[in-house]
Design brief:
Layout: E1 3-4, E2 7-9, E3 18-22, H1 24-36, E4 40-44, E5 47-51, E6 54-56, E7 60-64, E8 68-72, E9 81-82, H2 84-87, E10 94-95, E11 99-102, E12 105-111, E13 114-116, H3 120-123, E14 135-138, E15 141-146, E16 149-151, E17 164-169, E18 172-174, E19 191-196, E20 199-201, E21 207-209, E22 224-230, E23 233-235, E24 239-244, E25 251-262, E26 266-271, E27 279-291, E28 295-300, H4 313-316, E29 329-343, E30 346-351, E31 358-370, E32 393-411, E33 418-434, E34 440-443, E35 446-451
Parallel strand pairs: 2-4, 3-5, 4-7, 5-8, 6-11, 7-12, 8-13, 11-14, 12-15, 13-16, 15-17, 16-18, 17-19, 18-20, 19-22, 20-23, 21-24, 22-25, 23-25, 24-26, 25-27, 26-28, 27-29, 28-30, 29-31, 30-32, 31-32, 32-33, 33-34, 33-35
Antiparallel strand pairs: 1-2, 9-10
Length: 452
């Protein structure tokens, strides 16, 4: 046996790195030996290791050396099912992740190797939300993911759920642009999370902060809070950094800074809808460069996805409805120092719900240059049934109050620089427009002031 200072070389226990042998059972035996020792390092030397779910325990490190590749098994039976009953209200039933931990402490996944989910067969049925995540710690304390590369995840790539003290540093995620629901990093109902120095290139949102839907009985008990995201590069996803639409437990105390987004459809994306409940609040976003995005910044209170019908007026009515505990709240969002170029749809799009307008938004030092194209309308600025496709338009704000815009510079192709509808107590200091003779339009609003 090869146990040196708590390090277990998997190849000493019958694990074969030939890219063919299914090692699921032998890797489980190595982990059991480490568990009996109270923890240790599960070491993978260079090679290609086919396996199903690897379930880590307390005080364990999974170390992938340079040249080591974990290849996800293509047999669904190698990924045990997670059920609501087993996790007492967990609403993400499905296959266990390729690398998983449940109610553990001090779990580390690190090295310079690769985790390859081999998701191609799973992607053929994009409606199958039971697809396994690549890395899935659930209800864990002290999680570190460092240095590795993850590719071809079958579904969401890194998905910590109800975890505390999570550090994700220096990882690279690469999923094909057309792979369904292959989000990059999705902390859900997690506290005290630090994400830094990562490169994320995926088929859906690059980084999303969530806290469950109204039906997620476990997740919505915990806010997603105290999150720091810095020094990351986001490529080609549907959103650079996204909050929601699963926000029923609340998302708060968030800082996002010093990042680059390229080709990410929307850049900063906040999305929810009626019945979600919860509150998104105290978010600071600063120092972001964007290139080739549809819209740099959106808030969407009418998010249409998730099986909803456009005829459901309890969700999508444009009229003011009664406020209840299930009314989502978005407030105290501070965004500054954003530079976006080659933007195609809109310079910004904020659409709250009339009974609970977006409140306390501050947008400053915000510079957007639209791309002058001769093509058709590119896309909707937000995914809402009643919103039409746009091209080269300015900043649109509906159902917003007690907010400030400062040093806004927009170069538009169509329409005006800024448009307000159903706004109350809004100040704009220093609006600079190019490409239009109409700097601003205000409709059905009260106390909207422009101070140039």
């Amino acid at each position: 046996m090869d146990i040196i200072n708590g390090l277990l070389n998997v190849c000493s226990y019958g694990v074969v790195g030939d890219g063919k042998t299914n090692n699921t059972q032998n890797i489980a035996k190595v982990i059991e030996i480490a568990a009996q020792m109270g923890g240790g390092t599960i070491y993978f030397p260079p090679g290609e290791y086919v396996t199903g779910t690897i379930e880590l325990r307390d005080n364990m490190t999974l170390y992938l050396d340079s040249g080591a590749v974990i290849l996800g098994s293509e047999n669904p039976e190698d990924y045990p099912m997670i059920t609501k009953e087993a996790l007492k209200g967990y609403n993400r039933e499905g296959h266990s992740g390729l690398i998983k931990a449940f109610k553990c402490k001090n779990v580390t996944i690190k090295g310079h190797g690769v985790v390859d989910g081999r998701g191609e067969k799973w992607w053929k049925n994009p409606k199958n939300e039971h697809r396994p995540r690549a890395i899935q710690p659930i209800m864990c304390d002290n999680v570190l993911i460092d240095g590795i590369t993850i590719r071809n995840s079958a579904m969401w790539t890194v998905h910590p759920v109800c975890c505390n003290n999570v550090t994700i540093n220096g990882i690279t995620i690469k999923n094909p642009a057309d792979s369904p629901n292959t989000d990059g990093i999705n902390p859900e109902s997690c506290s005290n999370v630090h994400i830094s120095n990562c490169t994320i290139d995926v088929g859906d949102d690059c980084l999303t902060l969530k806290s469950g839907t109204e039906d997620d009985l476990l997740q919505k008990q915990y806010a997603c809070e105290n999150i720091v995201v810095t020094n990351c590069t986001m490529l080609n996803g549907h959103g650079g950094v996204v909050i929601g639409s699963e926000m029923s437990g609340g998302v708060r105390n968030i800082t996002i800074s010093n990042c680059v987004f390229s080709g990410t459809d929307r850049g900063i994306r906040i999305k929810t809808r009626r019945k979600r409940g919860g509150c998104i609040e105290d978010v600071i976003i600063s120092n972001i460069l964007m290139d080739k995005v549809l819209v740099p910044f959106v808030i969407n209170g009418y998010y249409q996805c998730g099986g909803a019908s456009p005829d459901d007026m309890s969700l999508f009515s444009l009229e003011k409805l009664p406020v209840s505990d299930n009314t989502p709240v978005i407030r105290n969002i501070n965004i500054s120092n954003i530079r976006a170029k080659n933007v195609t749809a809109s310079a910004g799009y904020i659409y709250g719900i009339p009974e609970q307008p977006v409140e306390g938004l501050t947008l400053s030092n915000y510079s957007v240059e639209m791309l002058d194209t001769d093509g058709e309308l590119k896309d909707k600025p937000i995914m809402a049934f009643h919103v039409q496709k746009t091209k080269g338009e300015g900043i649109f704000c509906a159902n917003i109050k007690n907010s400030v815009f400062r040093d806004i510079s927009v170069k538009v192709i169509n329409g005006c620089g800024m448009e307000f509808e159903n706004a109350e107590d809004v100040r704009v200091y220093g609006l600079h427009t190019d490409g239009t003779d109409t700097p601003n339009v205000v409709k059905n609003s009260e106390n909207v002031q422009f101070n140039d």
